Amino acid sequence: MKVEARPYIGSLDESFLFDNYLSFRWDEVSAFSWSLEEKTTFLQMQFHLKQRSYQQQFPNLETFILTVDSEKVGHYMVAKTSSEIRLVDLFIIPAYRSKGIGSFVMKKLMKKAKENSQTMTLSVFYQNNQARKLYEKLGFVLEKEEVPYIKMRWNPFIGSIR
């Protein structure tokens, strides 16, 4: 299994990012008594608002597409400053979860942070226990609870890449 990350190409990858978002939110909106078209339109609006929000909050946002043997399996978004790498979003399609792809991304980013004497931060949904366990295993510690998220930090001078 060859895992790679490549830069996001808008025209080529936007529908893939939307499909990821759709799969993440579909269970939530399926309970609504809306038509399929209304649910899809609502999620398209939410997706575009989320993308705009990320761009406003993180003007230097970089998006990468994750592939396994050239098949798109997820994406991640990072924002970098001189002192920090912020993992803004990480999504892996369900069929490829628990296969080391999240660890691949995290270790790659942590190595870069260590090389540049940067800390690394992220926010994780408080109910996402699988991701939280991974981050804790890698040495991330709770920094602050901002319901419904938990902000975590990794300092390369305190922990090591495991």
UniProtKB/TrEMBL annotation:
This is Acetyltransferase (GNAT) family protein. Pfam families: Acetyltransf_1. Residues 27-162 form the N-acetyltransferase domain. Keywords: Transferase. It comes from Bacillus oleivorans. GO terms for molecular function: acyltransferase activity, transferring groups other than amino-acyl groups. It comes from the Bacteria. PANTHER family: L-AMINO ACID N-ACETYLTRANSFERASE.
